[in-house]
Amino acid sequence: MLTTHPYDDDKLREECGVFGVADVSDAAAMVALGLHALQHRGQEGAGIVSFDGAEFHNHRAAGHIAGNFDSEEVIASLPGRSAIGHTRYSTHGESGLRNVQPLFAELASGGFAIAHNGNISNAMALRRDLVNRGSIFQSTSDTEVIIHLVATSSYRTLLDKFIDALKQVEGAYSLITMTPRGMIACRDPLGIRPLVMGKLGDSIIFASETVALDIVGADYVRSVDPGELVVVEGGKITSHRPFGENRPRPCIFEHVYFSRPDSIVDGSSVYGVRKAIGAELARENPVEADIVIPVPDSGTPAALGYAEESGIPFELGIIRSHYIGRTFIQPGDGVRHLGVKLKHNANKPLVNGKRIILVDDSIVRGTTSLKIVQMMREAGAREVHMRIASPPTRHSCFYGVDTPEKSKLLANRKTIEEMQDFIHADSLDFLTIDGLYRALGEANRRDERPQYCDACFTGDYPTRLTDHDALERPDQLTLLNAVETEAAE
Ligand code: SF4
User: Of 64, 93, 171, 488, which is the most exposed, with the fewest CB atoms less than 10 Å away?
Assistant: First the structure.
């Protein structure tokens, strides 16, 4: 059996990162660097499309950026002063190479490349209509629906066709498109997934996170606003807001786990928010103990915040190996449990005889927490108290994050007490949703809540979920299954 990340499989996974640069020499090399900084947002496949003023060039590969986009030959095969790229973890469509983005099509207006972070929650319904009208799909990706909507739009200009297409889709999208005329970056009306804009000299850069601007030495300009389309054409930038006024609902989980701690998301330092989350967690759920230990790496900033607020020393009681390969061939069942120790190991002399507080960002299936608590006990911990830096994850995400079915989420099946028994901890507590909003500095705007998408904690989805709802209705199931079957053929 092949597995990636024997430990992190028990995490929600952000599935995509996007990066685009207009009007710079070595555009493809710069995109490769940017995607490298976004590698945590998707590790299954990546692609770059470049435009050299006359032709489009593309290269797509399964796996990581390193090893696929670091050779001179590959970069030389992607000439031009503009390029867009995408790194992917599949949440929609099979994981084959044909779904690796950016997707590219020759439209009546010329070449059109598109990179998408998010998930279109009515893609199956739209696809069914398009197929009935004669569209022929090349992939099973929800993103291809946008290409067909643009291609079949009756509007005259490409920008109007694009807006017409976006007005028909529901869900989450941060998009970068490239045509012979220039580049368009946009965010869905609620701004569910992030997208930022930067500048390097006269060149404009778009990226999922600011860390990708840092790596190429670009300055952060601002976030692309929810519902905004930013058009870069002939060295000029114009902004369009065709969706009217909406109250933004960016994903709150970007702050909890997805984004890198050195990123700025919607104006806030992710690291700063995570430390504030840890402090809230300590205020809400104090416990007497000797040391605070982060579950590395994602629990580290929250554990620091917890330790500072509680006055209990912060210690590295779990050491993470950074040398384990991405792909590890699991041995037979008898020794499979050893796999977990390849990535994390207890710091025994430190843990032995202590009452410890373990801080992690979330619990998904609970299998990781169970193994870590067990590891701490085997290392001699006297008491193990688990503190989780987010509310219980009870609902699936339909906006571009890989979540197990609702029934597999531990918090959906069990009470907190039952979860505590399941992971064999002496105590288990979660941050409340109010605590999370306080850490984000939103406590004073209670009457405006929610200011974020927090649906995986609350079940309050900010958009319609057309495909999901249809799948729950038997009369619609046959139709949508037929679309899925066609897509897979
Ligand atoms: Fe983020 Fe959760 Fe909303 Fe998905 S459901 S967008 S993970 S807050």
Answer: 488
